[in-house]
Write a structure and sequence with these properties.
Order of helices and strands: HHHHHEEEHEEEHEHHHHEEEEEE
Shape: flat
Strand order of the largest sheet: 3-2-1-4-7
Largest sheet: 5 strands, mixed
CATH architecture of the largest domain: 2-Layer Sandwich
Distance between the termini: 132 Å
CATH topology of the largest domain: Nucleotidyltransferase, domain 5
Helix content: 25-40%
CATH superfamily of the largest domain: Ribonuclease H-like superfamily/Ribonuclease H
Structural class: alpha+beta
Radius of gyration: 36 Å
Strand content: 15-25%
């Protein structure tokens, strides 16, 4: 239009044809002399958003040092949060002042070592991790976390125990083999329940019970070099990942409850895509690893490791995981086997041919009795010599009550 340009004289139909902008938007621009101005609501936020009802939970996790958006998203999703992960990331970015300051990190040390690699189903890695648990009474407990991971695909399994004894190690390994299959070799460090010492040539001398366990299940064990993460780094990283991802902010009622949560957590993470390995662990493990790893055969010898042997005390109790459970009086042997499966405690005879009792899992220190733990007729001591001591028994003088005057079966004395 040249010098005759006037916003009021612009042909909106022709301008719409040339620019593709709608007629309504051109009318609004015409009022501003065709100058784009920011939206009047830009920068404003609603007082109530989709994440508003969950900010208390998120703030509490941030104050505890949990800044992983995926962990926070998994915590609030069961509470009813219907938003996206991006909304959680945005909220964390706006509230980083709640996160405690990190400790000062040292400069990383460079290394050009090569990582130890194996084929499908060839080896698993196992290790223990420990976590402190605080009860509502401010009592401090310590749980042991058994961790096993497939060296090839990253398929993982974790389980918690009240202690890291050898019998707990056997139970955790059997449960992991039931979940992932039995490999050719298990990589572990020099733990006392596995190896005693080494001979003059450097060959390990395995603990006799662990050596028998290897023969029963059918696998071999390789010991890793101490302080050398390139051979057993996957399970070391898994233990750290459990502490940073699964443990943080976790609330549970007892060790049975946390093991159910751990099983669900393993299932969900094994079905996720791992970018570093470029695979989904569960799919790769079932296609490639299980063609080499064998299925665990649950015979009577394997079941004995799941049911440790216990001595029966003089008052009819067996001790398991720091608690006492009753054994029926009809069982006359001195030993029995006991196992925890879910929310129940099962007691068997020493040969695993008969179930003696079933108890509910309880984590209080109070003894758990069984119905027929003691015989109904208790033994009675009789005199062995003639009784020469005598005492006298008088008739009891019961005091009269006010209602006895209404007893018309006897003679009434109105002077009473």
């Amino acid at each position: 239009m040249g010098a005759d340009y006037s916003p009021a004289k612009v042909n909106l139909a022709e301008l719409e044809r040339r620019t593709g902008i709608t007629r309504g938007k051109l009318r609004r621009l015409q009022k501003n002399d065709f100058e784009f101005l920011p939206n009047g609501n830009k920068g404003k936020k609603h007082e109530v958003t989709i994440i508003s009802g969950y900010t208390g939970v998120i703030d509490d996790l941030l104050k505890k040092g949990v800044s992983n958006s995926q962990v926070i998203f998994e915590r609030i999703a069961p509470l009813g949060y219907a938003g996206s992960l991006t909304t959680v990331k945005t909220y964390i970015g706006e509230h980083k002042d709640l996160i405690p300051a990190r400790r000062q990190l040292t400069d990383p040390q460079g290394n050009r070592g090569r990582r130890f690699e194996t084929g499908p189903g060839e080896s698993y890695q196992m290790d223990w991790g420990f976590v402190d648990v605080f009860t509502q009474n401010k009592e401090k407990l310590r749980f042991a976390c058994f961790a096993m991971v497939c060296h090839h695909c990253g398929m993982m399994y974790i389980e918690f125990f009240p202690n890291a004894r050898q019998e707990s190690l056997f139970i955790g390994m059997i449960h992991a083999f039931m979940y992932m299959g039995v490999p050719e070799t298990v990589l572990t460090d020099n733990m006392k329940s596995v190896v005693i010492t080494r001979d003059s040539s450097g060959k390990p001398i395995f603990q006799k019970d662990y050596e028998q366990f290897m023969k029963t299940v059918g696998f071999k064990t390789k010991l890793c070099k101490p302080r050398h993460p390139f051979t057993k780094g996957k399970v070391e990283r898994l233990v750290r990942y459990v502490k940073e991802n699964f443990i943080v902010g976790r609330v549970f009622t007892n060790i049975t409850d946390i093991n159910f949560q751990a099983k669900e957590w393993c299932d969900s993470h094994n079905d996720m895509y791992h970018r570093s390995l470029d695979l989904i662990p569960s799919e790769t493990h079932h296609k490639a690893c299980l063609s080499i790893a064998k299925i665990l055969t649950m015979d009577i010898e394997v079941y004995k490791y799941l049911c440790p042997l216990r001595k029966i005390s003089f008052d009819g109790f067996v001790n398991y995981e720091g608690r006492r459970f009753g054994v029926p009086y009809s069982y006359k042997e001195k030993t029995c086997r006991i196992a925890r499966d879910g929310f129940y405690i099962y007691i068997y005879d020493a040969s695993l041919t008969m179930k003696l009792a079933t108890h509910n899992v309880t984590w209080s220190r109070k003894d758990s009795y069984t119905a027929d733990q003691y015989v109904s007729k208790q033994p009675e001591e009789l005199p062995s010599t003639a009784v020469k001591a005598f005492i006298e028994l008088k008739n009891e003088n019961r005091p009269k009550t006010g209602f006895e005057k209404f007893d018309f079966s006897r003679r009434v004395n109105f002077d009473e």
